[in-house]
Design brief:
168 residues; mainly alpha; two-stranded antiparallel sheet
Length: 168
C-alpha cells in the first residue's frame, strides 16, 4: 500500500471514531425512545413546540439514524438512482485512482479529462432518470413527519425540568 492510501485510511478511521464518540455516544436507549407510556396529545401548539424543541435536542442522534435509514431505503427502492450514483461515484474514483496519464486506444489519445466528460455525459442522464429530487423530497417529508410526530407527541422526561439548572 502506498503512503497516500495509508493516510486516507487513517483519516477515515479517525472520522469514524470521532463520529462514534460524538454522535453515536448520544444515542438514547430504544426503551426510552419508544416509551409509549409517555405519548400524549399536546394541549396546544405552544406545548407541541416546547416538546418538539426539547425532544429534537435530546434524541438528535436517534433522529439522525432514522433519517439515514430512510435515505438508505429510498436508494434501495429506486434501483436506477442507485445504479446512477454507483456509476458516477465508482467512475470518478476509478478514473482518479487508476488513470492519471493519457493513454492510446485504437490510435487515439485519451486523457483523464476525456474520461470524466464521458462519465458525466452518461452518468448525469442516468442519475436524472432515477429521480434524485423526488427521492430527496420523499426523505425530507418522511423524516419530517416521523420526527415531528415523535418529538411533539412524546412528553419530555423529568430531566427536562432541570435542563436550565447548572450544577456546582
Amino acid at each position: 500500500m502506498n503512503m497516500d492510501m495509508v493516510g486516507y485510511l487513517n483519516s477515515a478511521q479517525d472520522t469514524v471514531r470521532s463520529l462514534r464518540e460524538t454522535r453515536l455516544g448520544q444515542l438514547r436507549h430504544p426503551a426510552e425512545f419508544f416509551d409509549y407510556q409517555r405519548v400524549s396529545k399536546p394541549k396546544d401548539v405552544g406545548e407541541y413546540m416546547k416538546r418538539a424543541g426539547y425532544n429534537i435536542r435530546y434524541f438528535s442522534a436517534n433522529y439522525a439514524i432514522i433519517v439515514a435509514l430512510l435515505s438508505v431505503y429510498s436508494l434501495l427502492s429506486s434501483p436506477l438512482l442507485l445504479i446512477g450514483l454507483v456509476f458516477l461515484i465508482g467512475g470518478f474514483i476509478g478514473i482518479s485512482r487508476f488513470i492519471t496519464e493519457p493513454f492510446e486506444f485504437q490510435g487515439r489519445t485519451i486523457t483523464p479529462q476525456n474520461l470524466y466528460i464521458g462519465l458525466f455525459l452518461i452518468g448525469i442522464p442516468l442519475l436524472l432518470l432515477g429521480a434524485p429530487i423526488s427521492a430527496f423530497f420523499w426523505v425530507v417529508g418522511a423524516s419530517g413527519v416521523i420526527v415531528g410526530a415523535h418529538a411533539g407527541l412524546l412528553e419530555p422526561g423529568v430531566e427536562s425540568e432541570y435542563e436550565g439548572i447548572e450544577t456546582v
